[in-house]
Design goal:
It contains six helices and three strands. It has about 150 residues and is mostly helical. It has a three-stranded antiparallel β-sheet with strand order 1-3-2. It is globular, with a radius of gyration of 19 Å.
Length: about 150
């Protein structure tokens, strides 16, 4: 007996599928052009935005797994793109700082990332471009509430 339900119609499925494809594109493109992964790119982006940060802050801002962040930080340190310094406020942690080599790589990748972003926005009408960030914010607020109060479903 077949049940008339198609998961492909669900918002969560569609958002996740789109996100997976975007990550796949980033992984292929950044590896091919820059010899880095999506994780490294996210760390570079966070540090370019914040100036300095810790692995914990990167995890919180990007929703990345601690192990993935640790491995990506290790690669970036070994390649001279970021440096680690002891955190004076938390001896168990270290502060991550972009090096000039990291800033240069960040700028190169950002150009490619910006071009992809431009293609996304170009596919939408002016009204859709205005509405999309508002829609995403509303959906994000709903899932944040559900995460805090799972019984509200």
């Amino acid at each position: 007996m077949a049940i008339k339900f198609d998961i492909r119609d669900r918002v969560g499925y569609r958002v996740q599928n789109l996100a997976n494809k975007m990550i796949l594109w980033g992984a292929r493109t950044y590896a091919q052009k820059f010899n880095v992964g999506v994780q490294e790119w996210r760390i570079l982006s966070v540090l370019a935005r914040t100036g300095v940060g810790t692995a914990r802050e990167v995890c919180e801002l990007t929703m990345m797994d601690k192990g993935n962040v640790s491995r990506a930080v290790g690669k970036l340190v070994c390649s001279g793109r970021i440096k680690e310094q002891p955190d004076k406020q938390d001896k168990r942690s270290s502060v991550l700082i972009l090096t000039p080599k990291g800033v240069e790589l960040y700028k190169r990748i950002k150009k490619v990332s910006d071009a992809r972003e431009k293609k996304f926005w170009a596919a939408l009408t002016a009204a859709e471009r205005k509405a999309l960030p508002q829609i995403l914010t509303k959906l994000d607020n709903v899932i944040e509430e559900l995460l805090q109060n799972p019984e509200k479903v």
